[in-house]
TrEMBL record:
Organism from which the protein derives: Thermococcus eurythermalis
E.C. code: 5.3.1.9
Domain of life: Archaea
GO MF term list: glucose-6-phosphate isomerase activity; iron ion binding
Protein name from the UniProt record: Glucose-6-phosphate isomerase
GO terms, biological process: gluconeogenesis; glycolytic process
Claim: Metal-binding is one of the keywords in the record: yes
Subunit note: Homodimer.
The reaction(s) this protein catalyses: alpha-D-glucose 6-phosphate = beta-D-fructose 6-phosphate
Family per record: Belongs to the archaeal-type GPI family.
CDD domains: cupin_PGI
UniProt xrefs under PANTHER family: CUPIN TYPE-2 DOMAIN-CONTAINING PROTEIN (PTHR35848:SF6), OXALATE-BINDING PROTEIN (PTHR35848)
Residues covered by the Glucose-6-phosphate isomerase prokaryote domain: 24-180
Localization annotation: Cytoplasm
Amino acid sequence: MEYKKPLGVKIEENGVIPGAKKLVRRLSDMKGYFLDEEAYEELLKEDPVVYEVYAVEQEEKDGDLNFATTVLYPGKVGKEFFFTKGHFHARADRAEIYYGIKGKGGMLLQTPEGEVEWIPMEPGTVVYVPPYWAHRTVNTGDEPFIFLAIYPADAGHDYGSIKEKGFAKLVIEEDGEVKLVDNPRWKE
Ligand SMILES: O=P(O)(O)OC[C@H]1O[C@H](O)[C@H](O)[C@@H](O)[C@@H]1O
Ligand SMILES: [Fe+2]
């Protein structure tokens, strides 16, 4: 039997996992994701980084685990707070655990039928993402929102239906408050 080597890493203050694979998502990578297209085009001139992911991933095998930090920057497109694209798992029955490290935000979760849940997150919050729920994180604060996610190595990402239909709710700022409102573009 060939055993894999155990691994311990310290997450840096800024959310970076040393040696991890880095993925950067800029606003230009998220065309069609935000409701306010005019505000999107305007902010595109700067094309800010919306989030970075630092992932330590194994081969896609049953039983193994991946982990990743996300650094989700503060910002808005119109009234809508910056968020991660959001996905179902390609193997839809795979669950996931998130752990809040820094900053303030929350997670939008949604079933294939469009039932939505919002879970606020701050440092120390653990979120259980059950099988079959799509999930997207949102930064509702004014500093980077940093969290850790642990997920089955064979979970995979299915962006398709979220990219097309979005979530049934938007997370916006209105009158200085964080609000969840119906997404006018949501389709069943
Ligand atoms: O893949 P997104 O929906 O853009 O979310 C960004 C990332 O968030 C977390 O770090 C998850 O563990 C990753 O699997 C995911 O890729
Ligand atoms: Fe996931």
